[in-house]
Task: structure prediction
Amino acid sequence: MKRTTIIDIAQSLGVTPSTVSRALAGNLRVRESTRKRVQEKALEMGYQPNIVAASLRRGKSDTVGMLVPRINRHFFSHVISAVEEVLNPAGFNLLICQSHERAEQEKQAIQVLLKNRVAGIIMSHAMETVDFEMARRATDERVPVVQFDRVNAAVPGPRIINDNFSGAYMAVKHLIRGGYTRIAHLTGSLSVNVYSERFKGYKYAMEEASLDCGEMVFEGAITRETGYEKALWLIKNRKVDAFFCAGDHSSVGTMQAIHEFGLKVPDDMGVVGFANEPFAGFITPQLSTVEQNAYDMGHRAANALIRIINGNPLPGIDQEEVVPVRLLVRESSMRTPINNTI
Amino acid sequence: MKRTTIIDIAQSLGVTPSTVSRALAGNLRVRESTRKRVQEKALEMGYQPNIVAASLRRGKSDTVGMLVPRINRHFFSHVISAVEEVLNPAGFNLLICQSHERAEQEKQAIQVLLKNRVAGIIMSHAMETVDFEMARRATDERVPVVQFDRVNAAVPGPRIINDNFSGAYMAVKHLIRGGYTRIAHLTGSLSVNVYSERFKGYKYAMEEASLDCGEMVFEGAITRETGYEKALWLIKNRKVDAFFCAGDHSSVGTMQAIHEFGLKVPDDMGVVGFANEPFAGFITPQLSTVEQNAYDMGHRAANALIRIINGNPLPGIDQEEVVPVRLLVRESSMRTPINNTI
DNA sequence: TACAAAAATACAAACGATTGCACAAAAAAC
DNA sequence: GTTTTTTGTGCAATCGTTTGTATTTTTGTA
Result:
């Protein structure tokens, strides 16, 4: 019970496989009537082209590799979805891998994608990753790489990033306007671009307002638990009156810590997060946060890749494309009523 | 600048490609010393095996197709992640497609997977789908299909489903214990197994308690908006005092409607949802809901597929495998304090 | 030293499509 | 009615592996 091939179709029609191939490809060198006959026969025999064989022969596959730290994170799953939305109509499929935030798994995943001869790779790096050699090697092997969100300039190709600086700047400035002055910053490793950019935005806003931010920045505080711990320490030892957290999870931990001190958000302390996780608008008090446009990012990444594959890269191919973010002002930072969006 | 092939390695070593192939595959028919030489040379030349060619020759690929309604839904993204966790170590990769809940896209996605000669398919049907012919055809072509969550018996192969009946039964019984008697049910299309099972559980619990459930069941209410509308209508016209919603989104809409009537949850009206979406524990009042174990489901689906691919299907291969669910009792249904889990 | 058995390698044919080139038949031009 | 051009097909090589079979080399034994 073998699957039908173009050879089977050719034989049952008394032509050669080449003609069948051309007919199915819509090649104009085959007569209209033959094309019809072939197409009908193909349908009749339930023919499914073997893309594997075609890829081998053509030396190019129509599969695009996608590599993310975790598929099930809200942000990443939405980027994936957006990428798929663009790539599918263009005739590409997605081979998806996750690195689980591990540098080693990221490396292996890239190798897997290369072994599968993907037409290109869209990826976001693991937190751990400091060696970008493997991603660079992909480009050496003529496999275009588009990075998004967590990017590194050591890898050639387009980089689509959120406007982390502006998001952070807007968030902190908003806190300052609300009258908060001792604003702490909880974030992740500053060797990761997203966090270093957010830190820069924070710092810029603080300095612009001539506020001191010494000893109020913590790097390893990105989960709910670490956010809770660091916030506890800061409240106790640094007289802070607001927090700008580089993530929503640590914001929740922070609010928990504030609550335990018998203080109120936002009256006693303001909190602004980053990412607008699904729960951010539902918690009490509702969390002000910086919204990232995952869809926009996914669309841009996919389009950038398609342009490269088609050989029409934009002029500034190796430059960063910045996706705007929005500050969502909710209850957790709203000491005085103001507009809902800045 | 061609990529190195086993032929290149063979030539630079003065052996044949077959030997190289066998050496790299760890075949014991090749001498230890040759194997070493080959492996070193392969490393030196930066050889990346061409899986496409290997797949063609072997007639089987190590790619598994995964088809879900939407990648970015909390439940599905977690199932995908779990599947990946099992499949990756087993040497498989995931080709992922989404149907966007459209029957036509589901059909096309299956064709894409078949054209890519995937080793198997793990899928959950779109809401729309009523014709399961294409999925069945996959199995005809010897591509094993494992269905999960939204399944249909018309397609041969394992079906991994949540214990929708028990979940619904527990939820409704819990409401009844809390003293609620006029319990309405908002759900999706009853032609989808997950909803029909939940409805059965609801009905069974109601009848067991000799409660009437006439004219209190609505099918097309699964989003926040439709949940809001139907709830509004029910409160106005049917004197209901509780809602069992087949999803968390419609639960939110329901609570909104209740709130608008000036009634309190849970004191005046109880609400229980289904799915335990990320926001469920964060909203006010916290939503009682039925938790599905996406990870468990993903693991089981992946393992079932691997067993089939390896030719060791379990005896009851065509039977359903039921994943237990948990009722999470939170504030929205807790008129009187009881245990947090039943 | 010769010879059988065992071990290691070579040969060559797949897998299923694509595609440059050759070639026939038909159409157009002279 | 030739010659030239156009048009439609066929031929055969190719993509990079894998693998059954043949062949060589090595090893062991008499």
